[in-house]
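Researcher: Structure for this, please.
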Amino acid sequence: MQEEETKEQEPFGESREENEQIQPRKGVIWGCVCIPINWFRMLSREMHWSFVFGVVVVYGISQGVGGSLAGVGTKYYMKDVQKVQPSEAQVYAGITSIPWIVKPLWGLLTDVIPIFGYRRRPYFVFAGFLGVIAMLLLSLHENLHLVLALLSLTAGSAGAAIADVTIDACVAQNSIAHPSLAADMQSLCAFSSSVGALLGFSISGIFVHLLGPMGVFGLMTIPSGLLILLGFLLDEPYMHDFSYRQVNQKFIDAGKAMWTTLKSESVWRPCLYMYLSLALSLNILEGMFYWYTDSKGGPSFSEESVGFILSISSMGSLLGAILYQYALKDYAFRDVLFWTQLLYGLSGMLDLVLVLRWNLHFGIPDYLFVVIVESVAQMTSRLKWMPMLVLSSKLCPSGIEGTFFALLMSIDNVGFLSSSWVGGLVLHMLKITRTRFDNLWLAILIRNVLRLCPLCLLFLVPRADPNALILPSESLDSKVAIDHTLESKNLELISLVSSVEGK
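Model: Predicted structure, token format:
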């Protein structure tokens, strides 16, 4: 009787053993769901929610979703509307990236010159308005001259760069205040960017097909509008009694602090490696894109197919960020960069297999193989980029975090520009045009060989623990940096940290 009563009390006739098996499964699933939630809550608690919100808006929506839409839209705009050659499109892509090279200027402005009593908020608002105006011009003018189109694209790029350097200043500031969370903050940036790119690429091909490239530029006003909203919502203290007469001296102090830090061997050596590793990674993406969409020599992918391929491949970037966060973030910089650079170089051979159509001999369709190739490329690129970002945040002296981090990022962007322009030159020399791709395999082979060259330069990178300080004491405690910090302590976004510590 007792056994029967016990069975009747069990819900839906399940035995107690079955319930005990189900409960741990539910606990595991709920635990997996809670891990990222608790991680976001921890970062919001340590750095204030507005900082996390700003990272999501800038990296996730503006650069992730917006960058994906703009990237695909610009490719088709140059190919179908402006009708330029792939080598020319490669050079024009470098021109529109120039605002990212002068990031130290934006960083110096946001570090030194407040506007209407605020240091960060007005720059987000200005970046948003600049992006809205540029995208509206591109979307509303049907026969825009190539020069004006390049100016508009460059202005939109400038808006994204200004927003990027402003949030980078916050990241560098918090990396110094919380050195143990530096990798977590870079993971937050990478996670936001990867998820945003996944969403952006998923809808990019559809919108390019339905609205055309110019219609996509119209949609780009939404991310720019969110930057304006961020400028109004950002938690930042109002600055009282700021004397603009001190601006010249602050520029001089910032320049001295930057030079003091940059001439240190522990700083210029990794900077040189970062530039060379990027410059040697030859950029021939425009040539590959023209081949992807060619109806004779290439697979002839449609707009929807290109967007869907890029959306799936962005999962590789997200996987790379997750792998770094949970498996690689505690390893020495030199060790991580060796394996990621090696993997990055070897994975480029997949493009060679694709262009030579060897995948068809193995029975692998172009569509599936391109998804694999792009996913591996995004993952290895993210794995290679993440430790360099953490290393860059560790090299920033206190007081001019935004300016110096922007300087380091501009060095990287000069590397990207070098690889883009040299890649365009290679495409031109090999006579790769809108309809001729006979030598594309040779361009890929040259690129892959150059990707392995940075392995010989790893001696420039420190073996330091990523959780430890890297800057020498004379750079961290230099009189210029400390004086600048003390004078502007309540001008920096350090309020996001101090507000937490005061609770």
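Researcher: Any notable elements?
Model: The longest helix spans residues 182-219. The radius of gyration is 25 Å.
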